[in-house]
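Problem 12. The chain below contains 151 residues. Write out its predicted structure in token notation.
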Amino acid sequence: MNVILVVQLVLVGLLAGEEFVVRWGVQPAMASLPDDAHLRTRIALVKSLKVVVPMLMVPAVLATVAVLVVAGSGDGLRWRVAAAVALGVFVLASFLGTVPINIGVNDWDPLDPPADWKRVVVRWERIDVVRSSAAIVAFVLSAIGVVQIGA
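Solution.
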């Protein structure tokens, strides 16, 4: 069981770390760029993260489910369930919120963006605060749940 706990913590931790850096590091830096550079950067980021995030998200969700099953109803169950719920919020916010926006951004022309592109970015950022926060909360709760197993 220790191996699955470590794998789950690493995967959820990497996902949370990636989300933290993009939300609180990359996004604010992009906001200070001129419009053309901002658009080029946003489009490039969408193209790379549409590969990276699923590579972390899917195994993290699967490992979280595996931990729920393997660890059973013992110590820390509430924390592990709460972590799974937070990860569920992350997945839902992704698929219902940011992913549809990213699909549109992927096709933007940085030289001729849609007239409402700034409004779309603001909407994406609002959803992303929920999404990235959920990933971070999932990691913290997972860590607490693992510590509770050994307590």
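Discussion. The chain has a mean pLDDT of 94. Students who got a different answer should revisit the alignment rule from Section 12.3.
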